[in-house]
Specification:
The complex is a heterodimer of chains A (125) and B (491).
Chain A: H1 22-31, H2 38-55, H3 72-78, H4 82-88, E1 91-92, H5 102-106, E2 117-120
Chain B: H1 9-13, E1 15-26, H2 51-54, E2 63-64, H3 65-77, E3 81-82, E4 85-86, E5 88-92, E6 102-106, E7 112-120, E8 125-137, E9 141-143, E10 153-157, E11 164-170, H4 177-194, E12 206-216, E13 226-231, H5 234-253, E14 261-266, E15 271-274, E16 287-288, E17 295-296, H6 299-306, H7 313-324, H8 328-334, H9 338-350, H10 354-372, H11 383-394, H12 400-413, H13 417-424, H14 432-445, H15 447-454, H16 461-471, H17 478-490
Parallel strand pairs in B: 13-14
Antiparallel strand pairs in B: 1-11, 1-12, 3-7, 4-17, 5-6, 5-16, 7-8, 8-11, 9-10, 12-13, 14-15
Helix pairs in contact in B: 4-5, 7-8, 9-10, 9-11, 10-11, 10-12, 12-13, 14-16, 14-17, 16-17
The chains are: A mainly alpha (125), B alpha+beta (491).
Chain lengths: 125, 491
């Protein structure tokens, strides 16, 4: 089971973040399976901190009493607007629709044998 | 480290295993969870893909209503509380069989929570909690071996990518490998009865990961757990857990520390291997999927779904024990699948004695099916045939020996009971005159035994019964024959 702490904090007051250290950049790169050269690491560090600094301006607002909203639909549900929620509950019937032609599906892939997609050897994680 | 334990029973007894199971089950829908591609197993590779399940830019997922119904029904059958509103989240990780770069799953607001099932235990039953049941999509299939360039390349088939799953997470309530086995067996049975999945483990419709740790008996705190993956049968789950429990105890007894990690089970060697993944390799960065509105299963819809709930195995067994006066063990065999139980009940209701139908199924059919390697659905003898046989036996027209012979014949020729019976129609000889004639013959041929009998050795009667039965080619009505033999000898 995953721990709740993985969920990003939402709403309320977020502790004032300091600048992102290099190790954090490397960790994110690792999760994204990216290898960064030395110069790319510095570039990424600079860009990331610039972007986060920009977004951090939002922290000047006090949102402690504002419920988080990830979906307009969810907000309507919280407000008890059932008709709107039902209208937003978009589901499809379980009936088969044509899939893509395989050749077409593979057209943009870097490597295939016409039947399978091929990727550089990966090991199970 | 050897695969077999070197630990004494006294040392093993000091520890208590703590086990939680995660079961992934593929739902039996026609199409995938979020697109209209067929979810059928075994099609030509990469022929059931579309922009949605390939994760092409701009494609938007739309949830399959049937998948919601199946997941809700399963959650209800496992006594979960249904959350009227549940939320789909993105579980982010990068792997080639997951083209979007995230799996659509449910995280902090799953469809069902706080469920339980009862499993048989040495002392009655034990209740095992179910933390949650949530909906998610499957990934594609990676093939690492079997191609000419498998040393350098992995092959990917995305047909399975986006197939609807439910994940059922148990509480860490399980205390032995046997309990884990029982839990899985019950879960599978319930899912099969609700018909939300075919639970075919060979095709990967049901998969199981086990979290296991050990602690000294009486300890409050859980030990560090290992997650055992890649176990594709319930028997292997049990064996893998047995091995893993002993491995962890060995580590602790040797003064070591159990490392929290994922381990792979190798069934050929009967042991688990570290996957050598970094302890903090995973960080899925869950967040609500902005492409999917929260799923609302209103109370009205929940009631509609609940109305489709079939009688579940446990309740059915209890009713059948009452209704047909059969033992708990009979009931267990007869409810091993919903189809089997349905057919049995149909036959039992048609027959004069339901109890005899139950006995015939268990005593004469199940063993023969097993010996022939057949499923009930492939049985040459239909349940109608069983009912007919039961009525013939009940009325005394067929002895149990004749019945066995006819059943054997059915399995030899592959014909139903009715067909074989009509052709061979063995008649029990219940005609006293005919039987008396045979007994006279036997008496005349064995004067010495007659003398013994008349001299007081009454047990010799059995000898005459046997001889006369032989003479009748096994067709004499046994009760009548017994009676007549005694009468003749005493007369």
């Amino acid at each position: 089971m995953q721990s709740k702490s993985e969920m990003p904090e939402q709403g309320g007051s977020v502790a004032k973040p300091g600048p992102v250290p290099l190790e954090r950049v490397l960790r994110v790169a690792e999760l994204a399976q990216l290898e960064l050269r030395e110069d790319e690491q510095q570039e990424m560090l600079r860009d990331l901190n610039a972007i986060l600094g920009h977004v951090a301006q939002l922290n000047e607002l006090d949102t402690r009493d504002v419920p988080p909203m990830t979906q307009v639909n969810a907000a309507m549900h919280a407000a008890g607007d059932r008709a709107a929620v039902d209208a937003g509950n978009v589901l499809r019937d379980d009936s088969v629709r044509p899939s893509l032609d395989r050749a077409k599906a593979m057209a943009a892939a870097p490597e295939t044998d016409g039947t399978y997609f091929k990727v550089p050897k990966v090991i199970e994680r | 480290m050897p695969a077999t334990s070197i630990l004494s029973p006294e040392i093993l007894a000091k520890y208590e295993p703590v086990i939680g199971l995660e079961v992934h089950v593929q739902l039996l829908t026609e199409t995938k969870a979020f697109c209209g591609c067929s979810a059928r197993f075994g099609s030509a590779p990469n022929t059931q893909v579309c922009p949605v399940c390939l994760g092409l830019p701009g494609a938007l997922p739309v949830l399959n209503r049937r998948a919601v119904e199946f997941a809700t029904l399963a959650a209800m059958a496992l006594h979960c509380r249904i959350n009227e509103t549940s939320v789909f989240a993105r579980k982010n990780y990068f792997y080639p069989d997951l083209p979007k770069g995230y799996q659509i799953s449910q995280f902090d607001k799953p469809l069902g929570e706080h469920g339980w099932i009862d499993v048989p235990a040495p002392a009655g039953t034990k209740r095992i909690g179910i933390t949650r049941l949530h909906m998610e999509e499957d990934a594609g299939k990676s093939m690492h071996e079997g191609f000419h360039d498998s040393r350098e390349r992995t092959y990917i088939d995305l047909n399975r990518c986006g197939t609807p799953l439910v994940e059922i997470v148990s509480e860490p309530d399980i205390r032995s490998a046997d309990e884990a086995y029982e839990y899985l067996t019950r879960i599978k049975e319930i899912l099969l009865y609700t018909a939300v999945s075919d639970c075919n483990m060979e095709e990967g419709s049901l998969r199981c990961d086990a979290n296991v740790s050990v602690r000294l008996k009486g300890a409050e705190k859980f030990g560090a757990k290992a997650e055992v993956k890649n176990v594709n049968s319930f028997r292997f789950v049990r064996a893998a857990l047995e091995h893993e429990i002993e491995r962890q105890i060995e580590v602790i007894e040797a003064g070591g520390r159990v490392v929290q990690e994922s381990r792979l089970y190798n069934s050929a060697e009967g042991r688990t291997y570290s996957m050598r993944s970094k302890e903090q390799a995973h960080d899925y960065r869950y967040f609500p999927d902005p492409d999917l509105p929260p799923l609302v299963v209103s109370n009205a819809w929940q009631e509609e779904i609940r109305a489709t709930m079939p009688e579940l195995p446990e309740a059915r067994r209890e009713r059948m024990i009452d209704e047909y006066e059969i033992t708990a063990q009979d009931a267990q065999v007869l409810t091993s699948s919903r189809a089997f139980a349905d057919q049995f009940e149909q036959a039992a209701k048609a027959a004069k004695s339901p109890k005899r139908v139950a006995n015939l199924v268990q005593g004469e059919l199940v063993g023969r099916l097993k010996a022939a390697g057949l499923e009930l659905a492939q049985s040459p003898i239909s349940m109608q045939g069983i009912a007919q046989a039961a009525d013939l036996a009940e009325s005394g027209a067929l002895s149990s020996k004749m019945l066995k012979q006819l059943f054997d014949r059915c399995f030899e020729t592959g014909e139903d009971f009715g067909v074989v019976y009509e052709r061979e129609k063995p008649q029990q000889i219940s005609d006293s005159g005919a039987l008396e004639k045979m007994i006279d013959e036997v008496i005349a041929a064995n004067p010495k035994q007659v003398e013994q009998y008349r001299g007081g050795k009454k047990t010799v009667a059995a000898f005459f019964v046997g001889q006369a039965m032989k003479l009748s080619k096994g067709q004499a009505n046994p009760a009548l024959l017994n009676e007549l033999v005694t009468k003749k000898l005493d007369g």
